[in-house]
């Protein structure tokens, strides 16, 4: 089986936005580097409290994936969806959507990451839709330190096995557990916590997928070259195959610290199409952006 190596690493820098202390962000995946992490367009980490947040704004041509780490975030959109995001939402903006994401109250501090996921040309203008991925529908895979057993059964000695790692499976599969997110572009999305110091997790990743990891807390070594990274670092691993093969590769992650190593992993099949992005609109050519702007100003994205 092919072994994953790390092709690019960098550090997220937190910056204050809008000239106010109520909102700050850091770019996990900077925009305008589509070919480096296709099908992922952009990913940001945000911290804010009232009056910060993202008030009413349009989108077209891609999907947004939001993971809330702390706080309560209220979502509303022009398709009639309204919810408190916890811990995730997956929105297909398709042909056009208006939405807003703001703190649920004036006291809560919100910490989240939002990913923009591209759509292929033939599906950029599909009907918009919304998936509210609540805690009770995201399954968790538990990995025990005794022979990496994946059950809560006690050992023959009668002693309970130690929990070495747990993986929230958001999209795709890990082990025999499948995530609830419905995808247009094939994506594997995992929230991984390695609890045991020096424990090594080996996670299969399709060999023709692009992959990135954001280290949320702790420090560890990654890939077959044991690249050492810590909280706030990002790594990218390029596809090992460029065809439609079903071959798997293996990513190795080791917790190098005494505390928990928590990482967010996204891997997706590259679309390999031209990308034009202007503000909240994504297309394959500039004519797509012009049409999006015209439709927005004509009120075709509906209203809240």
UniProtKB/TrEMBL annotation:
InterPro entries named among the record's database cross-references: Pirin, Pirin_C_dom, Pirin_N_dom, RmlC-like_jellyroll, RmlC_Cupin_sf
Cofactor(s) in the UniProt record: Fe cation
Residues reported to bind Fe cation: 57, 59, 99, 101
Pfam families the record matches: Pirin, Pirin_C
Protein name: Pirin-like protein
Domain (Pirin C-terminal): residue spans on this chain: 195-301
Gene3D superfamilies cross-referenced by the UniProt entry: Jelly Rolls
Family that this chain belongs to: Belongs to the pirin family.
Keywords from the named record: Iron, Metal-binding
Residue span(s) of domain Pirin N-terminal: 51-117
Domain of life (superkingdom): Eukaryota
Gene Ontology MF annotations: metal ion binding
Cofactor mode of binding and number, as noted: Binds 1 Fe cation per subunit.
Residue ranges that the Swiss-Prot or TrEMBL entry lists as coiled coil: none
């Amino acid at each position: 089986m092919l072994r994953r190596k790390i092709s690019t690493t960098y550090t997220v820098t937190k910056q204050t936005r809008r000239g106010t202390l109520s909102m700050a962000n850091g770019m996990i995946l900077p925009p305008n580097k589509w070919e480096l992490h296709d099908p992922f367009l952009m990913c940001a980490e945000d911290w804010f409290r009232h009056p910060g947040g993202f008030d009413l704004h349009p989108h077209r041509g891609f999907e947004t994936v939001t993971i809330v780490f702390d706080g309560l975030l209220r979502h509303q959109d022009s398709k009639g969806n309204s919810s408190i995001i916890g811990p995730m939402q997956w929105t297909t903006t398709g042909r056009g959507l208006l939405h807003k994401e703001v703190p649920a109250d004036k006291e809560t501090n919100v910490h989240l990451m939002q990913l923009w996921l591209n759509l292929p040309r033939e599906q950029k203008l599909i009907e918009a839709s919304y998936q509210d991925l609540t805690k009770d529908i995201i399954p968790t895979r538990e990995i025990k330190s005794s022979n990496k057993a994946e059950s809560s059964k006690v050992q023959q000695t009668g002693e309970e096995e130690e929990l070495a790692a747990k993986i929230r499976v958001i999209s795709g599969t890990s082990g025999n557990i499948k995530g609830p997110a419905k995808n247009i572009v094939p994506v594997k999305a995992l929230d991984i916590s390695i609890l045991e110091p020096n424990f090594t997790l080996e996670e299969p990743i399709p060999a023709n997928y692009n992959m990135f990891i954001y280290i949320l807390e702790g420090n560890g070594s990654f890939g077959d070259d044991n690249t050492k990274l810590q909280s706030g670092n990002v790594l990218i691993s390029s596809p090992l195959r460029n065809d439609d093969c079903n071959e798997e590769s293996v990513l190795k992650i080791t917790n190098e610290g005494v505390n928990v190593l928590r990482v967010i992993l996204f891997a997706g099949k590259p679309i390999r199409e031209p990308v034009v992005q202007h503000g909240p609109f994504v297309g394959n050519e500039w004519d797509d952006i012009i049409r999006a702007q015209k439709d927005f100003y004509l009120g075709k994205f509906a209203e809240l």
